[in-house]
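Please annotate the following for my students:
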Amino acid sequence: MVSGGKATPATLFYNKGTRKLGVIGLKHLVFFDEVANTSFDDAEASISVLKDYMQTGKFSRGDQEFSAQCSIVLGGNIDTNLDAREPEGRYRHLFEPLPEALQDPAFLDRIHAYLPGWEMPKIRPENYAVGYGFLTDYLAEIFAELRRRNYQTHVNAWVDMGAMTGRNQDAIKKTAAGMLKLLHPHRTPDDLTEEEIAPILELAVEMRKRTTDQLAIMLPTEFSQIDYSYKLGKGK
């Protein structure tokens, strides 16, 4: 977790002085908490490397190139009208609360999903589970094992994404594959049902569309006409 403060190329990617990998080269996931309060030392270099990594899964520092599997999550708060449950009128677009260095359309277009926290119910005592459950460490090991399994084959077997761009297809497939791992980890492409995958695809498309809808406000000529139509069915 990177909680506010300063993020540097050395801590994120590779420290040339100590010759040690940064957190993106070592971890499964890096979560930027309170990202609005995060500053990026040598922002141009940091964001440039981050964009390359989010596109290719590789990053370079000096004459060294590395591959990684780390996921990136940006978390934070925005001002909302709690009655309307929408932050309308407060921002021109919903990426405005991000640090200026991250308000780069080329970086934002690499975000696979936008989850609107103001639409999520608050956690209350009646939501807590009762009875037995997994220890956190054990559950983390299950998730680590699932990362090694490719569930995009499930999506490919069921969905024809038609004229979608490659970047939109990648975003939707990865989000859908992640949700399949959480909700139906026991399923194979052959025994997965349309009733199981249909709501997952719908949500994955919505979460990607929330990203490009905000980009359409920033760059309407580039992002205002995006085709998200797809065909669902075993073997299409």
About this structure: The chain has a mean pLDDT of 90.
